[in-house]
Amino acid sequence: MRLVMNEPVERTDHPYARRWWALLVLCLSLLIIVMANTALTVAAPDMTRDLGLSSADLQWVIDGYTVPYAALMLLLGAIGDKYSRRGALVLGLVVFGGGAVAGYLADSSTAVIAARAVMGVGAALIMPATLSLLAATFPRAERAKAITLWTATAGLAIAAGPVVAGALLRDHGWSSTFLINVPIAAVAIIGALVLVPPSKAGHHDRIDCVGGLLSVIWTGSLIYMIIEGPHFGWGTKAVTAAVVAGVGLVAFVAWELRHPRPILDVRRFTNRRFAGSNLAVALFFLAVFGAFYYLTQHLQFVLGYDALETGVRMLPLAGAVFVGSALTGWLTPRVGMKYTVTAGMVGGTTALALLTRVDVSSTYTDFLAPLIILGLAIGLALSPCTDAIMGAFPESELGVGGAVNDTSLELGGSLGIAILGSLLATSYGDHLTDATAGSKLPASALATQDSVGAGYAVAQGIGDKAHQLAAQAAQTSDAQQAAQLKQQATQLASGARQMADAVGSSFSDAVAHTSLVGAVILGIGTVLVAVLLPRREAAVAKAPEEERELVDSAAG
Questions:
Q1: Boundaries of every domain in the chain
Q2: What is the rounded distance in angstroms from the CA atom of residue 495 to the CA atom of residue 489?
């Protein structure tokens, strides 16, 4: 099969007949790599108990996926452009599936972290390939609609992960959340080979390996710093990573400005539409991932829903993403992306602002409106941004374009969890200290609280001790001893209730405080994006060497 590809303008040749079936395969591939993270948040408690994970172990089980994923996307996107985008997708699915099998078989924290890292490498191949193949397969007139469906799939995956994991965990262990990826990856591989057309860049220029290596160094170091600093303190590791990230970024920009065929032409960031779109993607996922991080905890720990019930209650967000995507598909061609993106970001800011009203008496209905508004906002804003980012690249660099979009997404998400997650933990600890001041709870219990789950675990432990003493009192024949045991049991039961109430109110207050900070960050970002995005939909200028016609030939 041979498809003629020009720079991103309207095509005159016939589009690929099975392109919508191909999009289904691309969306399925996207679904599993996004679900790999959201499902893990639900499986984490069972995994922690089974493997005896420390807080550091658990953090790296989650983030062992993120570092290679974010660091390798740009380089692997360029390699896919040169050799085969469909080949990159299939190889990524094979690697991802292999990592999932390894995760299913893992019996130690080291093995799980290694498996997650392998899955991250697979995701770094898959993610840019899905967008580059989408852009290469669809004519320009249909590309925005296809990207809208791609974005809606990402929104669905955010909410579907906890639902699928929760359903599995009712009858199976945490390892089943790894294994579920394997059959989906297998179906996607077959679908890619049958339905997705082969695609690669028409030129045969050498890959900018130095630029690619520098991108891996600075991006990987930045993500590592974002993870290490807030969670484990700003010690030598975090500071070193920050220095390496800064030096690596400067070196990367300097090299790319001088290279005749850079892996990423950084001059594109001087274009307001391109820069504003990347900023909007990063800020949106900072808010979304940060909010998702603490909302799932609130639903599970404070409101007492199990994993499946929590996932089901996140589904309105996914449904709202689809509605928002449909709206932006109709609105953007009429009013322009500046207004739909700005409206989406205002909606996201509003959703976070509504969460500042959360308190210990809040019920699920208090979260419903923010979830729906946030979903609508995602659908409104992200599709036009992704379309603008992909439209800034010639057909020969679609993999790089997808990688830039996805790197902005991943950096934003990592920052959201790091910044808002760290703020949440600090605020929760401060409120818990105030709420338990002057109490008669054991000092050891109060000193060990670093999360809402741990706080409730201590309350449960105190309550269990109260039940044990009450049972002993009922069995003893010594009236005086029985009275003493009953008194101790009563005191402990009161302490357990006090501890549970303090944990719930402290975490609710922390959610409100963190949401306020998130709303301020996203609100300031909304103003910046509104200023950056031009009113007119001007195309991004192409370098002279990019203005030639490029032929998309069969991949190997």
A1: 1-207, 208-262, 265-435+506-547, 436-505
A2: 10
Structural tokens at position 141: 């007139």
Find where tokens 């030129």 sit: 203
Residues 6+ apart with CB under 8 A from 198: 1, 84, 85, 86, 87, 554, 555, 556
Q: Is 205 exposed, middle or buried (0-12, 13-18, 19+ CB in 10 A)?
A: exposed
Q: Which helix (H) or strand (E) holds 379?
A: helix 364-391
User: H-type helices in 19-139, by residue range?
Assistant: 19-51, 55-63, 66-83, 85-105, 109-137
Question: What is the third-level CATH fold of 265-435+506-547?
Answer: Growth Hormone; Chain: A; (1.20.1250)
Which residue is it, tokens 């000092």?
A: 443
143, two tokens: 């590309």
3-state SS class at 173: coil
Q: Which two tokens stand for residue 62?
A: 């989650």
Element (H, E) at 551: strand 550-552
How far apart (Å, rounded) are the C-alpha atoms in residues 136 and 553? 11
- How far is residue 150 from each of residues 102, 265, 395, 548, measured CA to CA in Å? 28, 25, 19, 29
Query: In the beta sheet, which residues pair with residue 4?
Result: 551
Rounded distance between C-alpha atoms, residue 468 and residue 489, angstroms? 8
Map residue 12 onto helix, strand or coil.
coil
Query: Amino acid identity, residue 36?
Result: A
> How far, in Å, CA of 256 to CA of 404, rounded?
15
Q: What's the average pLDDT block by block, 10 residues per block, for the chain (556 residues)? A: 37 75 94 85 78 75 85 91 92 96 91 93 94 90 88 81 85 88 94 92 78 92 83 80 94 93 91 93 89 85 84 87 88 90 95 93 93 92 91 87 90 84 83 74 55 73 80 78 78 78 87 94 95 71 40 37
- The CATH homologous superfamily for domain 1-207 is MFS general substrate transporter like domains (1.20.1250.20)
**Amino acid at site 194:** V
Q: How far is CA 176 from CA 1, 40, 52, 102, 183, in A?
A: 39, 11, 18, 12, 12
DSSP 55: H
pTM above 0.70, yes or no: yes
* Dist. CA 420–CA 450, nearest whole Å: 15
Cα distance between the two ends of the chain: 11
Cα–Cα distance between 78 and 129 in angstroms, integer?
A: 10
Q: How long, in residues, is the chain?
A: 556
CA dist 445 → 46, 58, 459, 485, 541 (Å): 22, 21, 9, 21, 62
Q: How many CB atoms are located within 10 Å of the residue 416 CB?
A: 26
Q: Which two tokens stand for residue 231?
A: 């969670």
Q: Cα 119 to chain center, whole Å?
A: 14
